[in-house]
Amino acid sequence: MLGMRFIKVEPTDYVLQFKRGKIQREGAGLSFFYFAPTTSLVRIPVGSVDVPFIFVEVTADFQEVTVQGQLTYRVTEARKLAQLMNFTLTADGRDYASEDPKKLPERLINHTQVLTRASIQSLRLKEALGQSDNLVASLRQGLQSADAIASLGVEILGLSILAIKPTPETSRALEAEAREQVLREADEAIYARRNAAVEQERGIKENELNTEIAVENKKRQIKEAQMEAEKSVQQKKREIREAEIATKIAIEEKNKL
After folding, report:
1. Where in the sequence is the domain holding 83, given as residue range(s)?
2. Where does residue 252 rank: exposed (0-12), middle (13-18), buried (19+ CB within 10 A)?
3. In a domain, 123, yes or no
4. How would you label 147-181 residue by residue, b for 16+ Cβ within 10 Å and e otherwise?
5. HSE-CB of 86 using CA atoms within 13 angstroms
6. Which CATH number fits the domain that encloses residue 90?
7. Is residue 81 part of a domain?
8. Handedness of CA 172, 175, 181, 182 (dihedral sign)
9. How many domains does the chain have?
10. Are 96 and 84 in contact (CB under 8 A)?
């Protein structure tokens, strides 16, 4: 019959057949004949879609950074999306009749950029370069709770930040700063090791000196003890001689008597 056509869509496509303003059939992966002059077909991809993005934003300290990542989404409510954007097919059922299917990823990316700008502008350069995980969590939460996205019948499946990079000039400056910091830390480590070696050498010398002093004190004590012993011996000898002399004198006096 003139005007009769056949359409077959993939399981990842959701098709709606409109006739006289009413939905005649709908579903994913359908195939059917239709009368083209009185039928409008809407085909909406419902499989997951990966959309890469790259933004250039400015940090709180007025430094440009490039944010590169990927957004993954899928359509969960095809009817809702069909009411807001035009996914109608041409009469031959092969191509889209408008540019709206291409605009959907653009809308999501634009919303992602708005959230990214708000997050980056609240961070200084060094903070932004090290906050990719926090940025991902913030963007994902913002996208999942956004009314503008929910109204499209779209679900955000994932978002990843692949890189946050400064400008080449800033990158070289940061590399030079990091290199200087490493060199300073190396110098400080060498200085600390030298100080530790000097302190250790001083401790060794102090121990040696203390040992020498202790040895000398011991020698002096021994010498003093020896001198005391010699004095005691001499005193004993003197007392013995005095006793002998006294005895001798006593004997002589007795003999005289």
Report:
1. 46-166
2. exposed
3. yes
4. eebbebbbbbeebebeebebeeeeeeeeeeeeeee
5. 9
6. 3.30.479.30
7. yes
8. negative
9. 1
10. no
Query: d(Cα 152, Cα 13) in Å, to the nearest integer?
Result: 16
Q: What is the pTM of this model?
A: 0.67
Q: Specify if 148 maps to a domain.
A: yes
Q: Which residues contact 127 (CB under 8 A, 6 or more apart)?
A: 59
Tell me the per-residue pLDDT of 125-176, one tens digit each, with 9 for 90 and over: 888 888 888 889 889 999 988 898 999 999 999 999 999 999 888 878 767 7
Q: Is residue 75 part of a domain?
A: yes
Of 38, 121, 44, whose CA–CA distance to 76 is shortest?
44
* Residue 236, φ and ψ in degrees, nearest 5: -60, -45
Q: Rounded CA gap, 86 and 11, in Å?
A: 20
